[in-house]
Fold this sequence. Notes:
The protein is mostly beta strands. Helices cover 12% and strands 50% of the residues.
Amino acid sequence: MRSTLSALAALVTFSSVAIAEQVGEVGVDWVGNDIIIEAIADPDVDGVTCHIAYFERGLIDRLSKGNWFEDPSNASISCRQTGPITIGDIDRDENGEDVFRASRSIILKSLRVKRIFDEANQTLIYIAHAAELTDGSAKVSMSTVPLYQAD
């Protein structure tokens, strides 16, 4: 089941977005629900890596509750400098740009990581949030990376 979901997520991940690499998995309960931890290197800012954690429903949970093709929107993000920072060609307006995007349901929901450059404070801001066509989502997680002596 996990490989099918991962393959589906990989097909839906797009733009000049980064590729996520799973680095951890925490079993939450006996029905197979897990917390997945992935590392995402920013494709346009060398030296910055984000770690995102999200909930993935197990087979027993999907069978008992229905809603086969959807995972919760909750996610947590933490971004850090992991090497010398070199900023490439990034969007510098206040809307920022997508760094990562993956499907959380078959059609209507995606998990997104967006980067915003706060030039006045020399800080990169990373926001993890769900995008849903029907209701949107107020579930947001944020991390910042200060740019001390960045190129």
